[in-house]
Amino acid sequence: MIRLLAVGVIALLANAVALLVGAIVLPKMSLNASGYITAVLLFTVIAVAIEPLIRQSAMRSSPALLGSSSLVATLISLVLTAVIGDGLSISGLVTWVLATVLVWLVALGARLLLPLIIFRRVLSDVRDR
Fold first, then answer.
1. How far apart are CA 126 and CA 81, in angstroms?
2. How many whole angstroms separate alpha carbon 115 and alpha carbon 32?
């Protein structure tokens, strides 16, 4: 249970950082300050719900596309977050493609680095035993 909570917190933080970096780097991607938290929550919930479905579908129909399932999940999550919520706005085809890749890359990096930063003490306690 604690591990699931930790994974959820890491996913939220990673997506928060990724969306913020995307909004800073891409001029046609913007986050509304009042809707930022809602956008992050919505994006994370959609991504967590849709990624296993896309991965499972790719495994059945075309295993070669399995590697791109996370990118597709990121794109769908961005589209749904922009349509449903009012905190995220992306315009232009190039911006959509760049936003998908950038958000995916930053979230991936954050998911790898954040546990080392956040749980450093827990990890050091485990190593000391």
1. 39
2. 28
For 79-101, b/e burial (b = at least 16 CB within 10 A) is ebbbeebebbebeeeebbebbbe
Return the amino acid letter for 16: A
Token representation of residue 76: 């769908």
Task: Give the whole-angstrom CA distance, residue 13 versus residue 41.
Answer: 10
Residue-wise pLDDT for 64-96, tens only, equals 676 788 899 999 999 999 999 889 999 999 999
User: What is the CB neighbour count within 10 angstroms for residue 42?
Assistant: 20
Cβ proximity of 114 and 10 under 8 Å:
yes
* pLDDT score at 127: 60
